[in-house]
Specification:
Rna Polymerase Sigma Factor, Chain: A; 2 domains; globular; Arc Repressor Mutant, subunit A
């Protein structure tokens, strides 16, 4: 295996996590990562040695995702309720799971631009410069989106988040 291939393997878990945060579906996320990796391998000659491989891979994944979203916009998927009903009715069994779900619901409600920045910084640990490179935006835009995302999450969680809609059983 080439050095490029070995370095590529190191970043696959991070790509999967980011893809799952974007798509909220394990199967679709795996497909997205596979497509991004195939594109990276087929274009490995365009990678400049000495530059940030991780940021390059995240940029490819981001661009593949954007292309897929644009493609699907003209033909949205329809999913029968019966296919996902079991996931919609399964109650949380532990308080921590409820809190995590509440936080994820709040994060999911963020505009996509803010959610992407928040996930890349908070979940993947990318530096602001790397996030700016991945998303193709100025670093100031990254900082303002991150600030707005954090404030929105803080405000919604302080106001009860999803818990406001839950009924307490005694």
């Amino acid at each position: 295996m080439s050095k490029f291939g070995v370095e590529l393997e190191v970043h696959i878990a991070s790509l999967r996590r980011y893809a799952r945060s974007l798509l909220r579906n394990r199967v679709d996320a795996e497909d997205l990562v596979q497509e991004a990796l195939a594109r990276a391998i087929s274009r490995s000659d365009s990678f400049q040695a000495g530059t940030n491989l991780r940021a390059w891979l995240f940029t490819i994944l981001h661009n593949v995702h954007v292309n897929q979203v644009r493609s699907r916009a003209s033909r949205p998927d329809e999913v029968p309720v019966d296919a996902v009903e079991h996931r919609l009715t399964t109650p949380a069994r532990q308080e921590e799971r409820v809190e995590v779900r509440e936080m994820m619901r709040v994060v999911d409600e963020l505009p996509e631009e803010q959610r992407q920045v928040l996930m890349l910084v908070a979940l993947e640990g990318l530096k602001y410069e790397e996030v700016a490179e991945v998303l193709g935006v100025p670093i100031g835009t990254v900082m303002s989106r991150l600030s707005r995302a954090r404030e929105a999450v803080r405000t919604k969680m302080a106001n009860g988040g999803a818990a406001a809609g839950l009924r307490r059983v005694k």
